[in-house]
Each structure stands twice: as structure tokens, then as C-alpha cells.
């Protein structure tokens, strides 16, 4: 992605101050049992799918190596959930709140593009991009290139459902409105996936992430997961 990318201004969004406050308070309003239940579901489903898809993972790995030289997995630095920390003021011995702009983590994906320098400077918006390998086209159409992110879910970096994890230099340009998408863990899939927004830059559909944050529930997560599975099975290019 280009460094001169201009982010959409929050002035063009129609959310009211009341809605913004509601979104920002989501983490506080959600009770502990909800977060724990969501985490248990994340771990359980991830372990189940890793065990179920192990033969598929091995086959994909072999085909990636046969198709083009390079690693099987790629690692990208992404920004996850914003976690507020406290620092102690030495002079007054008081604690002050420090608002962090998201937590960096290493995200895993199956390599779907040729192995070369500056590979991901410009994001491919179509499977016809010449940098995408033959196996990569299938992986991207089926979203199987995202399968290794189950490792990130087990590590606690990501959730099964949530906003897409963004690149660091983009997050550094976030305004207050866009930063609200960092209130929850990023996900492997989400509303953005179901609406074909994978073809767009992540920041272009902030409203979809905030819609999820406002309305997130276990029921919503299961609905999104089932629809994602349906699309993947039919190889829908989303």
C-alpha cells in the first residue's frame, strides 16, 4: 500500500456524538462473561478447524511450494485491539491513563503472491493481478489464504469475527473516528467480508466495523461465521 494514501475524513461520516460514545463504551458495557464466552468459542472452533483442515493445510502447503519458489507462510505486522495501560507519575506518585493506538502483532497467511521484494507495497484488488500465483488465485477466491490466522486466534491476537487487522502506517494516520475500530480484537472474517469489502482498502469501510462493534453478540458472530463458511464452500469471490 502506498504511503501517500489519504484516509477518509471522519467529517464525512454521519455518526452522531451519542453513537460515537456508545461505540467507545462498548468494552466497558460488555460484561466479563461475554468476553470469556467469546474467547472460549474462538479457541474451541479454531482447534476444531485446525484438526479438521489438517489434510487441507498439508495439501495447500505442498501446492504452494510446487507452484512457485518462496515460503509457505507470509508474516505481516498488523495492529490489533487498543489496550489501555497505566503509567505511574514519579513526581506525584499518581497513575495516569495512557491511550495506546492499537497493539502490533504478527499475522500469518498462506503466500498467494510471487516471492519478491516490496511484494505488498500495493495491495492487489483483483485475482487477475500478475503477482498472484495460480494456487494463490484459488486461495484468495476461497479465502483459504486466511486459514493460518487461526494461529493468531489461538494466541489471542485475533478473534474469529471482528474488524480486519490494519497495517501500522495506516493506523498511524487514523483520526478519533477511525480509531474506534481498534476497540475490539480484529477478526478473520466479519461484515466487511460478507459485503465484498476485501477488495477495498480497510479504512474505506470503517462504518461496517463500527456497525459490528455496536451490535456484536454471540448470535451475530455465529451468523457471520455460517455465512462465511457458505461463501467459502461455493468459492464466492468476496
Topology:
Layout: H1 17-24, H2 26-29, H3 32-52, H4 54-67, E1 73-79, E2 85-89, E3 94-98, E4 104-110, H5 134-142, H6 149-155, E5 159-161, E6 166-167, H7 168-171, H8 176-179, E7 187-189, H9 191-194, H10 206-215, H11 218-233
Helix pairs in contact: 3-4, 3-6
Keywords:
single chain, 238 residues, alpha+beta, 11 helices, 7 strands
Could you walk me through the main structural features you see in this protein, from its secondary elements to its overall organization?
The chain is of the alpha+beta class and 238 residues long. The protein has one domain. Helices cover 42% and strands 13% of the residues. The chain contains eleven helices and seven strands. The strands form three sheets. A three-stranded antiparallel beta sheet has the order 4-1-6. It has a two-stranded antiparallel sheet with strand order 2-3. It has a two-stranded parallel sheet with strand order 5-7. A hairpin with a 4-residue loop joins strand 2 and strand 3. Helix 3 packs across helix 4 and helix 3 runs antiparallel to helix 6. The longest helix is centred in the first third of the chain and has 21 residues. It starts with 16 loop residues before the first helix and ends in a 5-residue tail after the last helix. The N terminus is likely disordered.
Amino acid at each position: 500500500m502506498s504511503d501517500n494514501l489519504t484516509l477518509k475524513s471522519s467529517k464525512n461520516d454521519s455518526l452522531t456524538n451519542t453513537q460515537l460514545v456508545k461505540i467507545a463504551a462498548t468494552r466497558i458495557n460488555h460484561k466479563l462473561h461475554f468476553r470469556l464466552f467469546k474467547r472460549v468459542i474462538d479457541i474451541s472452533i479454531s482447534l476444531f478447524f485446525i484438526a479438521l483442515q489438517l489434510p487441507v493445510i498439508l495439501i495447500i502447503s505442498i501446492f504452494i511450494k510446487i507452484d512457485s519458489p518462496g515460503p509457505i507462510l507470509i508474516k505481516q505486522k498488523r495492529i490489533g485491539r487498543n489496550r489501555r495501560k497505566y503509567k505511574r507519575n514519579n513526581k506525584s506518585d499518581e497513575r495516569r491513563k495512557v491511550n495506546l493506538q492499537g497493539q502490533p502483532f504478527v499475522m500469518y497467511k498462506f503466500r498467494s503472491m510471487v516471492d519478491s521484494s516490496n511484494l505488498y507495497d500495493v495491495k492487489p484488488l483483483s485475482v487477475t493481478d500478475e503477482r498472484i500465483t495460480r494456487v494463490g488465485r484459488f486461495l484468495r477466491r476461497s479465502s483459504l489464504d486466511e486459514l493460518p490466522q487461526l494461529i493468531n486466534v489461538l494466541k489471542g491476537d485475533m478473534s474469529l469475527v471482528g474488524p480486519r487487522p490494519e497495517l501500522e502506517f495506516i493506523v498511524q494516520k487514523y483520526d478519533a473516528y477511525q480509531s474506534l475500530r481498534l476497540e475490539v480484537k480484529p477478526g478473520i472474517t466479519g461484515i466487511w467480508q460478507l459485503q465484498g469489502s476485501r477488495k477495498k482498502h480497510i479504512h474505506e469501510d470503517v462504518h461496517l466495523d463500527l456497525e459490528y462493534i455496536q451490535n456484536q453478540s454471540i448470535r451475530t458472530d455465529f451468523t457471520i461465521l455460517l455465512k462465511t463458511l457458505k461463501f467459502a464452500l461455493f468459492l464466492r469471490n468476496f
